[in-house]
Design brief:
With about 350 residues, the protein is mainly α. It is built from 13 helices and six strands. About 50% of the residues lie in helices and about 10% in strands.
């Protein structure tokens, strides 16, 4: 009897131990599950981007960049709360094997999952590409290379190899491009924008002037360099159109500055008018062979909507305000020019 009781007690003791271990194991499993999902929350759903003052930050990933480059670049921005969490999710989602170049905007409070998804899907944010007040194609290429991935040399080469492209192709404005745009795609889009700009209405106005769009842009480039006052542009354009109709030389000082290549000149002198250049509009009639700058929209539209009048001359005002006075004959013009010369001398502007 005592043996049976001893055996029964042993079984009960073993059952208690077994239940205790079952509870412990179950507790450990529960803790592991909680820890797993807590880690997932921390690594996936919790905000991982914290920017200074809540401002957006741009991440630029160049073409052919690898994952190590991306990690280093994000780290350099000092916005990641946990580089380990980013790396963990990047490996889990295989982003490290699927890098998309471009510009990505990291916003304050963005989660790791949002960040990785944006990078994996290549959901980049376009850049606003702006150019104006540009004189040469080389200067244009330099300005564009500051705003997209393509370098200036590749842009110049792309322009030079395309017979349908020159400085008149580029209409100064604000355009949207993906940052990783190459030179070929840049020029291609600018051709599309050029054709969009030269709509039927503008073409009809150019035909009315018996000019091609390119010729309009060449004349507009001269107007651009004659005045910064948009309100004056149609009147100045009208002066040059009157001269073209009479087959007079344009006698445009900015073309001499362009021919000389010295843009510091503030006062064109008689000696400058002797330069042997197809851009010397004092010696040659008609338009110069090309634009002297990349024409603004305001100047192009000023030519297309040139004021009809009887002025054949104009001269800067002697108050040096940047505005001009206009004359119908050489005598009026000479009086205006003398007043301007005196103003230049008084202000010691000799070149």
């Amino acid at each position: 009897m005592s043996g049976y009781r001893s055996s029964y007690n042993d079984r009960r003791k073993k059952d208690r131990i077994r239940r205790r271990w079952t509870v412990i194991i179950f507790f450990v499993i529960i803790c592991a599950v909680i820890a797993f999902f807590t880690r997932d929350y921390l690594y996936i759903s919790k905000p991982i981007i914290e920017t200074a003052d809540g401002q957006n930050v741009s991440l630029y990933i160049p073409s052919n960049a690898d994952y190590q480059y991306v990690k280093k670049e994000i780290a350099s921005l000092n916005v990641l709360k946990s580089e380990h969490a980013f790396d963990w999710l990047a490996q889990k989602t295989k982003y490290n094997e699927n890098i998309h170049p471009g510009r990505y905007v990291l916003s304050n409070g963005m989660t790791n999952q949002q960040l990785i998804n944006m990078l994996r899907m290549g959901h980049q944010t376009p850049v606003k590409v702006v150019f104006n007040n540009i004189r040469t194609v080389e200067q244009l290429a330099g300005r564009i290379a500051e705003q997209i991935e393509a370098d200036s040399l590749s842009i110049i080469n792309e322009i030079n190899k395309n017979a349908n492209v020159d400085a008149t192709t580029f209409i100064p404005n604000t355009y949207e491009f993906y940052w990783n745009t190459d030179a070929e795609d840049f020029v291609e889009k600018m051709l599309v924008e050029y054709n969009r700009f030269w709509n039927d209405s503008r073409k009809q106005k150019a035909n009315g002037l018996k000019m091609t769009p390119r010729e309009v842009s060449i004349l507009a480039s001269i107007v651009d360099k004659e005045t910064t006052k948009v309100s004056e542009m149609p009147r100045i354009a009208g002066v040059y159109i009157n001269r073209l109709k009479k087959h007079w030389p344009l006698q445009a000082d900015p073309t001499l500055v362009f021919a000389l290549g010295d843009y510091s000149i503030r006062r064109v002198l008689d000696v400058h008018k002797d330069i042997d250049s197809p851009y010397n509009t004092y010696k040659r009639t008609g338009l110069p062979p090309g634009p002297i700058c990349i024409s603004s929209i305001a100047a192009i539209d000023a030519v297309l909507n040139a004021e009809q009048h009887n002025f054949f001359y104009f001269c800067a005002k002697d108050d040096l305000s940047g505005y001009h006075v206009f004359a119908r004959n050489i005598n009026e013009h000479n009086r205006n020019a003398e007043l301007y010369r005196r103003a230049l001398n008084k202000n010691k502007i000799y070149r």
